[in-house]
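Field log, afternoon session.

UNIT: design team B
ACTIVITY: writing a sequence onto a fixed backbone
BACKBONE:
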């Protein structure tokens, strides 16, 4: 995305972030800081437009470094006027193709605000699973503290790997015994 492209996208970015309903970005950031966040940190950033009108944008980047770098991460923003017209679907489908071309084996969305029901439903239609829920992790401007969802889709050739068995947690009584033993030893 060129600086001119971002300048055209900036009003959409600014208004979505200012609404504090879907993104945990600083609403006070200026255009230059937003451009660095959206365009420079990711591997690639794409603009959706029709007849010269900007409809939305998305970025693609690794979700983590090193051993986790095979999982990609994307963020999508669509102008209010273009919502419900297939723009988010087209961008998500495009991002999955680009992710595969870049060698990513999966995509993970780290923080989908649970009250963003249209996005959650679309991501699920496109094959993303809810793999985690973060209680009260987002301070929504209208609804207060709401949950965020972690969503994941395997993109690799082979079937999605089986989810590991849940880790059995140590009971409270056992944790207290471990903590009290350590305290005695450290004293």
């Amino acid at each position: 995305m060129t600086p001119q492209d971002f300048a055209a996208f900036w009003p959409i970015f600014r208004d979505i972030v200012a609404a504090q309903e879907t993104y945990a970005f600083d609403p006070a950031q200026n255009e230059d800081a937003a451009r660095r966040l959206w365009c420079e940190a990711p591997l690639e950033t794409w603009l959706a437009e029709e007849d010269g009108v900007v409809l939305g944008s998305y970025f693609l980047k690794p979700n983590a470094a090193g051993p986790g770098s095979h999982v990609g991460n994307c963020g999508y923003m669509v102008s209010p006027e273009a919502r419900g017209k297939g723009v988010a679907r087209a961008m998500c489908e495009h991002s999955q193709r680009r992710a595969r071309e870049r060698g990513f084996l999966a995509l993970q969305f780290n923080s989908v605000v649970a009250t963003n029901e249209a996005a959650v439903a679309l991501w699920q239609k496109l094959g993303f699973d809810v793999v985690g829920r973060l209680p009260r992790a987002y301070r929504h401007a209208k609804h207060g503290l709401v949950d965020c969802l972690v969503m994941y889709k395997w993109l690799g050739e082979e079937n999605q790997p089986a989810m590991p068995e849940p880790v059995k947690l140590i009971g409270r009584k056992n944790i207290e015994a471990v903590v009290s033993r350590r305290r005695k030893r450290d004293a």
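LOG NOTE: The beta strands are 44-50, 53-62, 71-78, 106-113, 129-140, 144-154.
NEXT ACTIVITY: expression trials, pending approval
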